[in-house]
Design a protein that fits this description.
Order of helices and strands: HHHHHHHH
GO molecular function: ubiquitin protein ligase activity
Organism: Varanus komodoensis
Number of strands: 0
Keywords: Transferase
Structural class: mainly alpha
Distance between the termini: 107 Å
Largest sheet: none
Helix content: 55-70%
InterPro entries: E3A/B/C-like (IPR044611), IQ_motif_EF-hand-BS (IPR000048)
Radius of gyration: 29 Å
Pfam families: IQ
Strand content: under 5%
Length: 241
């Protein structure tokens, strides 16, 4: 009888233990299900947000039709922030090319400070964000240059685009905002260029730009001429500067 009581007690304890394990397992499964659902919802939300942002970027570039459209520097800045937030090399390649062309077009505008992309460097609220954005954009241009082959016609056009971006924002000589009375701003702007150039150097700027026999690491003048399609360096003798 005593033995039967012990067996009954052992069975009771075993059933209680099994019940606890089942409840613990159920809670763990519920917790795992909640985590999976949260991850899926976050993924779907992120995908939806990325689609919306990319659509806004596309709408910005498509606005006004195929002809030249003057866009304010601030609108370009905001669009660039959106694109950089969701940027993926393969998916956003064409968008980034449009952004570069849009920025360069703004720099070529005549007598319109609100259009010049570089004018945001004069804003106390936006200057640091603008510098950070320029650094990010220029380094992406460097990343694309790594993948491009200058001997291919289409790639050579893109090489010129990205080199022009690099030349434009590492040298103040073409900045129309510095003409006339703006000449007083040149030292400050040159300092910003030096800051940007230092950032690019730290990330490997010159090693990226070694295209063919002309090596910008040996000659900055050659880089400028390449961007303006005036490079006359010999493929045999190399860079002449």
């Amino acid at each position: 009888m005593f033995s039967a009581t012990q067996i009954s007690k052992a069975q009771f304890l075993d059933k209680a233990r099994q019940a606890r394990e089942e409840r613990r397992g159920l809670k763990e499964r519920e917790r795992a299900a909640v985590q999976i659902q949260a991850l899926v919802r976050r993924f779907l939300c992120r995908c939806r947000l990325q689609r919306e942002i990319r659509k806004e970027v596309d709408d910005f570039f498509d606005a006004g039709g195929p002809g030249p459209v003057k866009r304010t520097a601030l609108s370009i800045f905001r669009t660039a922030r959106k694109l950089l937030f969701v940027f993926r090399m393969q998916e956003d390649k064409e968008r980034f090319e449009k952004l570069c062309r849009c920025i360069l077009a703004s720099m070529d505008a005549e007598n319109d400070p609100k259009v010049w992309y570089v004018s945001l460097a004069l804003s106390k609220e936006l200057m640091l964000l603008w510098i950070k954005q320029v650094k990010a954009v220029l380094w992406l241009s460097c990343e694309f240059l790594k993948l491009l082959k200058p001997d291919i016609l289409q790639d050579s056009k893109l090489v010129n685009l990205h080199l022009t971006m690099l030349v434009t924002f590492t040298d103040t000589s073409t900045w129309k905002i510095l003409r006339g009375k703006g000449e007083a701003l040149r030292p400050a702007m040159s300092h910003i260029c030096a800051n940007i150039m230092g950032h690019l150097n730290q990330k490997g700027f010159y090693s990226v730009l070694q295209v063919g026999p002309c090596s910008p690491s040996r000659c900055s003048q050659c880089l400028v001429l390449r961007a303006s399609r005036q490079c006359r360096c010999s493929p045999v003798r190399g860079c002449k500067y």
